[in-house]
Amino acid sequence: MNPLTKVKLINELNAREAELGVREAVSWHAEYKDSAWIFVGGLHYELTEGDVICVFSQYGEVVNIDLVRDKRTGKSKGFCFLCYKDQRTAILAVDNFNGIKIKGQTIHVDHVANYQPPKELEEWDEVTRALHAKGCGVKMPPHTSSNSQSEDEDVSLKMEKEKQRSRVEQSKSISQAGKQVSMEESHSRIKTKKEDPGYECYAGGSS
After folding, report:
1. Where is this region: Disordered (predicted)?
2. What pLDDT, in 10s, does the model give residues 144-154?
3. Of the residues 12, 50, 82, 103, which has the maximum number of CB atoms within 10 A of its CB?
């Protein structure tokens, strides 16, 4: 069957089920309830595994991908098999990605009932080995991001600077208050000496 015809049929089937309000248990998707693998065809040959993951991660975590490549040249053949962590996400992907265009090409997305990923081959590169070993789902950032940490550090630095500035200003005000008190005391002593009868003698006046 022509891929574009398959795209059209799947979209028509989904629209028909939505119109009739078909329950999930009797939907055509229920046939694939035990498989989270989907088939993606019609891909542009320049797209890499990472490109496909970026698109298909919009609906859930991708845990495996097999972009079929030519064994001799290593170039993409334009289709892949992709596995989600949750089978319900595979349903969303089929319903929403089937028939969309990527780089000007209409892609075909469908369920796969019994897909067996290829075993590790000697010619796999390190990136492919890592993808198959760890999965390739999008990882959620930690609760406290590096940006928020840096912002917290900036805030603490600002607070510390404010404390230092406050201590400096406080010491200055104490110092100025001390100078003012000493000046008042010296002025008071001079005034007292002038009022004292013996001041003239003390100041070197006539005897």
Report:
1. 136-207
2. 444 545 555 55
3. 82
